[in-house]
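Run log // design_07
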């Protein structure tokens, strides 16, 4: 079994003081968790601070988005190479908040995925349906479309070393977690879709679940065969909740 990934997406939360406290608590609490890959996604401006604090630890650093361009006149944007300067190894791509609030299209998400991969970053490609789409029975069609645009632009080989996160939009920040069975169904579908292009790669691709993951529901989600970790929003701002999720991942990985 590959090491489960427990990723904390802090979104636009925190300040210098609260982030220092949070990182210290997470660092202290994950010391013994050798079978979990912990990744933190702070807001851009705190990357230097968190990067400095994480030096010499096993915790990885990621950014919440990146530019599809390498450099130039793109005011407000941040490139992959800038993220590498601060030891980021991961980057979220296509989070639903960026798809919806910043109007990121499937094609733009695909370009960002390529920019990340080509720079040597691990993109965490987020996909997922809205409540309306689920109620219309369109979940698989939506997820297939989101994946297909990336597969067509990037090619399946670029998924080697990438991560996919299934995040049903209706479960994000709502407390309405998908049931383990609902999540498993879509995770298996994602794997089948990628397997159409490359079966071997699809088997080893880590697929995270995101959407109201908490310490109390992490174990049952991780018990599903195609769930390889969690992308955690709200609960990642609370060190004890986040550490509870990481501990559940460690127990799952140990088979205890
Ligand atoms: P949530 O967010 O855990 O607060 O639902 C998940 C995410 O947006 O990645």
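design_07 sequence
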């Amino acid at each position: 079994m590959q090491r489960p990934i427990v990723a904390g997406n802090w979104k636009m939360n925190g300040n210098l003081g609260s982030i220092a406290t949070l990182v210290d608590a997470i660092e202290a609490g994950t010391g013994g968790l050798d079978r979990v890959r912990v990744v933190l996604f702070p807001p851009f401006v705190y990357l230097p601070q968190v990067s400095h604090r994480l030096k010499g630890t096993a915790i990885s650093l990621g950014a919440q988005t990146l530019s599809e361009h390498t450099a130039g006149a793109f005011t407000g944007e941040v490139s992959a190479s800038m993220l590498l300067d601060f030891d980021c190894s991961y980057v979220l791509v296509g989070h639903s908040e960026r798809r919806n609030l910043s109007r990121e299209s499937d094609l733009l998400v695909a370009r960002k995925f390529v920019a990340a991969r080509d720079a040597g970053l691990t993109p965490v490609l987020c996909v997922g349906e809205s409540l309306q789409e689920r109620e219309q029975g369109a979940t698989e069609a939506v997820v297939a479309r989101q994946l297909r645009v990336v597969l067509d632009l990037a090619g399946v080989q670029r998924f080697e070393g990438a991560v996919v996160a299934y995040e049903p939009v209706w479960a994000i920040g709502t407390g309405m977690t998908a049931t383990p069975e609902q999540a498993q169904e879509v995770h298996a579908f994602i794997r089948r879709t990628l397997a159409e292009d490359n079966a071997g790669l699809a088997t080893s691709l880590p697929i995270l679940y995101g959407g109201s993951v908490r310490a109390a529901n992490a174990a049952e989600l991780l018990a599903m065969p195609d769930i390889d970790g969690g992308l955690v929003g709200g609960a990642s701002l609370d060190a004890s909740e986040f550490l509870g999720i990481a501990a559940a991942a460690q127990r799952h990985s140990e088979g205890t």
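The pocket of 2-phosphoglycolic acid is lined by residues 9, 167, 172-173, 210-213, 231-235 (CB under 6 Å).
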